[in-house]
Design goal:
By secondary structure, the chain is α+β, with helices and mostly antiparallel strands. The protein contains 7 helices and 5 strands; from the N terminus they run H-E-H-E-E-E-E-H-H-H-H-H. The strands form 2 sheets. Strands 1-3-2 form a 3-stranded antiparallel beta sheet. Strands 4-5 form a two-stranded antiparallel ribbon. The chain binds iron/sulfur cluster (2 copies).
């Protein structure tokens, strides 16, 4: 996932993004073979275990954002899944098929759409900031009986669909 704070193209890209750590791209991260759950828990990751599989929810507690720059507070000891994940933009940048300016522009475009979704969420109802963005949007769009859907709900659904489509096209990997 995110690169360290070195001044390299990949560090500049991931430093401006953070979407694979802050709950925009993922709901949760599963630990892999080779990860040490006890050590990761001691570093502050809030692990949960289900059917023998340990994972942690996003936004990740090791994710930091300061002055518009993202980083991982446990970068050298981050889980395997984080070490292995490169989104489409990072892959393209590293292989030379996507120019840094274009990758940065796509991150900015996605971040702008994330801000729009967050703004609409704020307008509609309080949601748990410790859950993924998709989870929060689904909660906000699940209305109690008797409450009618209004224009902000439609706007939120449209904004989230637009964001998901961009994430699928430019960031997610299969
Ligand atoms: S989503 Fe891609 S560009 Fe953004 S932090 Fe993760 S790997 Fe880096
Ligand atoms: S451990 Fe680091 S790289 Fe992994 S999700 Fe958390 S902030 Fe991102």
């Amino acid at each position: 996932m995110v690169a360290d704070l070195a001044d390299t193209p990949s560090a500049r890209l991931c430093g401006s993004c953070g979407m694979c750590c802050d709950g925009v791209l993922f709901h949760a991260v599963e630990l892999q073979k080779g990860d040490n759950p006890r050590q990761l828990a001691s570093l502050g990751l809030k692990l949960r275990s289900k059917k023998g599989v340990s994972s942690f929810l996003q936004p990740c507690s090791a994710h930091r954002e300061e002055g518009g720059r993202c980083s991982c507070s446990i970068y050298d000891q981050r889980p395997q899944r984080c070490k292995n994940f490169d989104c489409q933009q990072l892959r393209g940048l590293l292989s030379g098929t996507i120019a840094e300016d274009l990758a940065l522009e796509r991150v900015q475009q996605a971040r702008t759409q994330v801000e729009r979704v967050l703004g609409l969420l704020d307008r509609i109802s309080p949601t748990n900031p410790n859950r993924s963005l998709a989870h929060r949007v689904a909660n906000a769009l699940t209305l109690p009986p008797g409450v009618e859907r209004g224009a902000p709900h439609e706007e939120l659904e449209t904004a989230m669909k637009g964001l998901e489509s961009l994430l699928q096209k430019e960031f997610r990997v299969s």
